[in-house]
Amino acid sequence: MRIALIEPDLQHARVVDRLVFAGGHACRHFTASAPFLQCAQIDFFDLLITENWAGDHCAEDVIPRARAILPDLPIIVLLPEPRESQIVTALHAGADDCLSKPVRGPEMLARIHALMRRAGLRRPANRRRDVIGGYSFDAAHFAVAFRDRTVVLTPKEFRLALLLFNNLARPVSRVHILETVWTRGRDVPSRTVDTHVSRVRAKLELRPELGYCLIPLYGYGYQLDAIPSELPAVPA
User: Fold this and answer.
1) Fewer Cβ close by (within 10 Å): the C or N end of the chain?
2) Degrees, nearest 5: CA angle 78-177-107
3) Per-residue pLDDT tens for 138-183?
């Protein structure tokens, strides 16, 4: 399941991202509603989680705009220290559910699954599939399909690849990679991360001439960028 998260608080966004990923879903983070609404014009999301203040607009304004693009989109609103009046306002604006911020992992995942059941949109675990940038990720079989071929990855390679694709054009720190892919944190040797990145690069053919560039960021982590194909020259 593809989840869009609008959260100006980067630290809390990282927490939600890890919890969503641990629940078997892909999370695309936006720091404000405008880039999300622009992305939703060309991409599909199964669920929107938005902070009550979405960086540039309040949630009650964002909800109708999101539904104008994705009419049946389920929406959860995050409320810091929620008051009853805030919950009522969010629900009247069209939110399907509200969560207290900071989120509690098991409760958040349970509410997501309950909402998906009510919406009739929850995909069975053995049929989870996400398509990002021409790559189709099959979480049930740790397989990735692209350019008329399918490659089977190890579970850690798959989680790493999905993490990188969910953060296209954004730097991903080694700490985030370790916490998301290995879960054990900092006791994993640095060369282990480098080895897995190298394998993902090779298996998924992430090369500039094929549209992608996966580069190391010295002292920080890695970044995956999509390389736009050159447009043909327009005749004079």
Assistant:
1) C
2) 30
3) 877 889 999 999 999 998 899 899 889 888 888 888 877 887 787 6
